[in-house]
Amino acid sequence: MCVLELIYHHHARYKYDYVGANFGLMISVNYKTYVKNIMSDDRYLTFVGAFGAVACSFSRFFWGFILEKKTFKFIYYAISLLNLFLAFTISFIEQIKQVYFLYVILSYICYGGMLGMFPAITSQIFGVRYGPQIYGILFFAFPISNLLQFFIVNYV
Length: 156
Prior knowledge:
mainly alpha; 5 helices
């Protein structure tokens, strides 16, 4: 493989990871904000968020069970493709309440799958002794990156 091919694959993978992993996180935090000008029923949107949180919780068990049967790469690509589909089609369905509910639930399920698989994979890769420590360091990147983003957005 030449250097240009390596650079292409490297950038393509990061674009794929961004859409695959971060759409569920974006929707889980902004599902109300995304449709605030379209849907004014706050009770319904709270209901959607509550069911999404429950779906996220149960999906971790589901994805963990699937992880025992299939490879991490297969599941990761399946979740990423579903998130890719949801991310690029959500603008077409945002006015349909029932379909928006389904999209938010599926986004939460994918987000739970991402969060549910990584502890097992880090322990599998780095061993039982170091896996949880490394996962803790990786998970600690969320608040640090959010704090950094806050300072960049507000002060730069």
